[in-house]
Amino acid sequence: MIYDNITMGRFICRPNRFIAKVNINGSEHTVHVKNTGRCKELLVPGAKVFLQESVKPERKTRFDLIAVEKILADGSEMLINMDSQAPNAAAEEWLKKGLIFGKDASIRREVKYGDSRFDFYIEADNRKIFLEVKGVTLENNGIASFPDAPTERGIKHIHELIECRKEGFEAFLLFVIQMKGISAFTADRNIHPEFADALKKASSCGVVILAYDCIINPDSMVIDRPVRIIPDL
User: Fold this and answer.
1) 110 φ/ψ sector (left φ>0, alpha ψ -120 to 50, else beta)
2) How many CB atoms lie within 10 A of CB 96?
3) Rg (CA), the chain
4) Is the omega angle on the peptide bond into residue 226 within 30 degrees of 0, that is, cis?
């Protein structure tokens, strides 16, 4: 996926989950933060951030915060996409390439099943597949992990995928790692042990767990290569 109208700034502070103060060319601006997660390890004072300028003049915030440059322990830099809408958009582009289910697959977004609504429903060669997407922005010593905070919603999605599998559908959970340069992915048991347990149960019930990294630029994010999954830290 590609962004237009990208501007660089420096992060100042985050008064609440939805907005941040950013220095752009010497002026302080209030910008919209599209990722409402805590992201404390990313949004640190002085961090270089990349913002998309809105084309809607009536908006209260002129910019959306898209990506941040994280300084790693060795002093190198890692660009991380923070747009919570990007994983689904990138996943749709990736699915349409046909690398997983074929180029002739029928792909629908936001499909209801029972009391659930999954990110994608796919039909291909008589296969009926539900696929849920989770974006990953947390990294520590080269290992990406999810979640960055307890997520009852995430556990609910896993249980729903298990039910789909029991009903004869195929079920996939795709972790889109919004960065490049990591060596593995894991469910973070320290942050939410119940989520790690639910993910392990899903795998044993036939839900396919996938983790892919992304090629990240200030103005784009493209799903790239599969990443090794560590069952537990």
Assistant:
1) left
2) 12
3) 18
4) no
In this structure, the answer to whether residues 90 and 205 fall within a common structural domain is yes
Residues 6 or more apart whose CB falls under 8 angstroms from that of 107 comprise 92, 95, 96, 120, 121, 122
> From residue 200, how far is each of 133, 186, 194 by CA, in Å?
17, 11, 10
Please answer whether residues 164 and 144 qualify as being in contact, where contact means their C-beta atoms are separated by less than 8 angstroms. Answer: no
Question: What's the CA gap between 220 and 81, in Å, rounded?
Answer: 9
- CA-closest candidate to residue 64, choices 118, 108, 112, 5: 5
Beta-bridged to residue 76, according to DSSP, are: none
For residues 69 and 78, the answer to whether their CB atoms sit within 8 Å is yes
Nearest by Cα to 180 from 132, 219, 146, 144: 144
Residue-wise pLDDT tens digits, 105-156: 999 999 998 778 899 999 999 999 999 999 999 999 999 999 988 888 889 9
Helix, coil or strand: residue 75? coil
Return the structure tokens found at 5: 């109208």
Q: Are 186 and 233 in contact (CB under 8 A)?
A: yes
- CB contact at 8 A, 223 and 214: yes
- Residue span of the structural domain in which 189 resides: 86-230
Rounded to an integer, what is the distance from CA 2 to the centroid of its chain? 16
- The answer, as to whether pTM is greater than 0.90, is yes
Q: Which residue has the tokens 């958009």?
A: 89
Q: Is 24 helix (H, G, I), strand (E, B) or coil?
A: strand
> Domain with 134 in it: what CATH number?
3.40.1350.60
Residues 68 and 90 grouped into a single domain: no
How many domains does one find in the chain? Answer: 2
In a domain, 138, yes or no: yes
